[in-house]
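Q: What residues go here?
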């Protein structure tokens, strides 16, 4: 039996530190982010943003990279088009073409990711919720070997709003047949974790940028292979 997460933290608790769920809570399903959690594609995505920005005469700084981390292709295209006063549809097409070329032969699962997904999937329904487009997400999950272990995956094109809105996580949990309070999300970015928290999931943060902005979460670990994450898994899976 599952129970709902405890209420929001008090004003004395940092906003990113959410209280752990009630004692005895275990997930009925798990939803993973993709980039930065399952595969090492965040650097590639940043390079895509840089290339497209520079082609449109824009400087791409470290601050912009950090701000746009986890953004969907649609949101990145909108930001570049507005800054460059360019045609948004043309910029979006450029982002998609550049991403597909950049990912060719570059899709590598992060350490422990495939094992973690497989272990959860042996006991619980598992999904992926990503700001990637549908074509790119399917390509990544198939090539990295995750697809056979997943019940479903949801892209930014499958819902009205991309992360940080809750739509992607809400849809993933709906497809798995559970309430959000019964679901666990595994996220690496502020944008993604904000989406999962807003949808009502319990969140484990595994930040891909350790010194980046604090990722809101109920639990946190440094990596999927870290003792803290393995201890959480053991408690949930028995």
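A:
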């Amino acid at each position: 039996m599952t129970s709902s997460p405890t209420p929001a933290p008090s004003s004395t608790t940092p906003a990113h530190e959410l209280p752990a769920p009630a004692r005895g809570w275990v997930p009925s399903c798990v939803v993973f982010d993709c980039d930065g959690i399952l595969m090492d594609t965040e650097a590639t995505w940043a390079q895509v943003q840089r290339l497209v920005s520079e082609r449109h005469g824009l400087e791409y700084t470290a601050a912009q990279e950090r701000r746009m981390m986890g953004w969907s292709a649609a949101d990145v295209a909108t930001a570049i088009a507005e800054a460059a006063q360019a045609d948004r549809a043309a910029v979006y097409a450029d982002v998609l073409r550049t991403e597909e070329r950049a990912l060719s032969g570059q899709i590598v699962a992060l350490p422990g990711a495939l094992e973690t997904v497989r272990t959860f999937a042996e006991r619980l329904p598992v999904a992926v919720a990503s700001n990637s487009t549908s074509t790119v997400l399917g390509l990544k999950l198939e090539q990295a070997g995750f697809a056979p272990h997943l019940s479903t995956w949801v892209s930014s094109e499958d819902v009205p709003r991309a992360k940080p809105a809750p739509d992607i996580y809400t849809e993933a949990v709906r497809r798995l047949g559970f309430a959000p309070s019964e679901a666990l999300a595994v996220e690496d970015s502020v944008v993604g974790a904000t989406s999962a928290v807003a949808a009502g999931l319990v969140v484990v943060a595994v930040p891909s940028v350790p010194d980046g902005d604090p990722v809101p979460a109920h639990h946190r670990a440094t990596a999927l292979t870290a003792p803290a994450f393995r201890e959480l898994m053991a408690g949930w899976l028995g």
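A: Context that may help when evaluating the design: Residues 1-13 have pLDDT under 50 and may be disordered. The chain has nine helices and six strands.
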